[in-house]
Amino acid sequence: MSKGYDNPSYEGNGKLDTYEKEDKGANGIQNGGDKQFVNEDDGKREKFSFRQLWLFTGPGWLMSIAYLDPGNIESDLQSGVVAGHRLLWVTFWASFLGFLMQRLSARLGTVTGKHLAEICYESFPKVPNVLLWIMVEIAVIGSDIQEVIGTAIALFLLSKEKIPLWAGCVITLVDTFTFLFLDRYGRRKLEFFFAFLIMVMAISFGINYGADLPPQGEIAIGTIVPGCTGCNKDWFLQAVAAVGAIIMPHNLYLHSALVTKNDVDRSKKSTIRLANFYTSVEAGISIGVSFLINLIVVSVFGHVLHDKTYGEINARCNAKNWYPEMFNCTIDSNTCVATDNVDADLYKGGIALGCTYGAAFTFIWAIGILASGQSSTMTGTYAGQFAMQGFLNLNWAPWKILVITRLVAMAPTLFVAGFTNIQTLTGLNDILNTVMSIQLPFAIIPCLCFTSSRVHMGDFRNGPIQKIIICLLSIIVLAINMIFVFQYVSETVPNKWYFLVPIVIYFVSYFIFVGYLAIYLFICLGFEQLTKFQFLRRIYKLEPFLEQTLDIP
After folding, report:
1. Is residue 37 part of a domain?
2. Residue 23: which pLDDT band, with cuts at 50, 70 and 90?
3. Average pLDDT in the 349-355 region?
4. Could you list the residue range(s) of the whole structural domain that residue 151 is in?
5. What CATH number does the domain containing 237 carry?
6. Is 332 helix (H, G, I), strand (E, B) or coil?
7. d(C-alpha 59, C-alpha 62), whole Å
8. Looking at the 3D structure of the chain, how many domains does it have?
């Protein structure tokens, strides 16, 4: 089996090969700018090119939308309500960890010309491969439901409750086909459109931020200084939830697929090296922007709702005559106590902004949520398309995959929207964040496997220090997510045997599968002595490691 960088170039939008007919350096990278890189093929230096970075711009911004989906925005909101600005450092480091994982995912696609799902199909036997596909599709559908809920709530607020929640769900289903139609006119146009939606989010949430500037010193300290002074159980659970909400499992599959559309000459190591650099820079910029938007949301609600009681917010609503019943604890349908600290979700948070700054700020908030839901809708569609195509080796038309994933996601959402209330619908986000946390190992472990493998990445595999750092950080992230899952299950599942037995059976099977993937990870990390065991040769595809034999004692 040939190493990744020997694979033929992948047809796409045109990136590195765009300059085949223009002035370029010896490695196929356009010269320009003022920062230089060493071309190891001939010892020459290549300058940093903003024009080349522009040509690589697109996949990272589409990927970063997952960091701004309605589930993340609600997690930011709740982080601000629960802990003020003191958990901003969690959002920062979670975003940084997300960048490290996205960088690995992008490197895999750039070096091999194949995306993560395709390599899973080639590298795992049929049963583990199908199980991985199911887990990824569950993550895609869970994310899809969050996006539908976010869009429905935004339309509910913008129409002053004239568009019912179920109708908002149907509208979301229809407009996804509109975006797919836009994609037929070129991926670049779709990338520009989503960049516009990110700008709408930044402006919308930024207006709320500027309405009454939060204490800038507290925000800076909360972002830079890790700590938990005076924290309680709610703070800890919110910090764990924030990590789980930001790092999305299907996003690793998505990013690895999007970068394969870059046209790279994989016969030259220097070209691949610079391609890896530009994709990393683009991913870093896009995730940095998404972090700033997340920071704004946390800061706004940390300033408006942290340590505020239902009685205080109700007084604001009465003064503005804006949804005076929302935080009124004397109404039987509101299960709250006036002296308790307020809690919030996407809907109540928007109302609280209107009660604090004026009705217009509820609508401004809703516009931002609408942009969040609409933009993340299409990235979820792409992730589902790439997963199905890669894991099952299918080449269905995108609209067929869209119909299947959308209908599966829409059925439970429509049921809840049609037969329950807004509180139940918004409460689904907690369940869905738990679902995302459960699926995370099935993206992180395969990504670590293949980016550390000499068989798949050749000279571009993770180095020893990088392997140690990434593996340790991944263990921390997975442990944090499991804490969140078990805490949520223990608090919500009734203590009855007929509930507990299926859950125990599921998690035993779950950890057996995670262990199966972990053994393969050890082989990819360099413990190739394991390939000597006949039992492992029967349950894994180890032929590539045996064909490219190292001196195994």
Report:
1. yes
2. very low
3. 95
4. 4-305+344-492
5. 1.20.1740.10
6. coil
7. 5
8. 1
